Amino acid sequence: MDDMHAHQLEVLRHQYPPGAAVELVHMDDPQAPPKGTRGEIIQVDDLGTIQVAWRSSSTLGVVPGIDMVRTLGEEIPTK
Questions:
Q1: Under 8 Å CB-to-CB from 52, ≥6 apart: which residues?
Q2: For the chain, what is the mean pLDDT?
Q3: Domain extents for the chain?
């Protein structure tokens, strides 16, 4: 693993610690839970995928840069 990738993982893991509550803003996947679905962070894996236990009983991961979640209490970013 290169230093840049290790730094990016460190940042993601700090931003999305296990147990943090999140809400789905957008997911580019036909199996995605509906927008607004809430869940809890399980972990950020070694590839940088944010693994979430969704309240809809799904555990579909969030891919940074493609999908978007927000931690509860923060504003939804605009493009």
A1: 22, 39, 40, 41, 42, 59, 60, 61, 62, 69
A2: 90
A3: 3-71
Domain 3-71 = CATH 1.10.287: no
Say what the pTM is: 0.84
What is the DSSP annotation of the chain? Answer: --HHHHHHHHHHHHHS-TT-EEEEEE---TTPPPTT-EEEEEEE-TT--EEEEETTS--PPB-BTTBEEEETTSPPP--
Amino acid at 52: V
**Tens of pLDDT along the chain (79 residues)?**
577 689 999 999 999 999 999 999 999 999 999 999 999 999 999 999 999 999 988 889 999 999 999 999 755 555 5
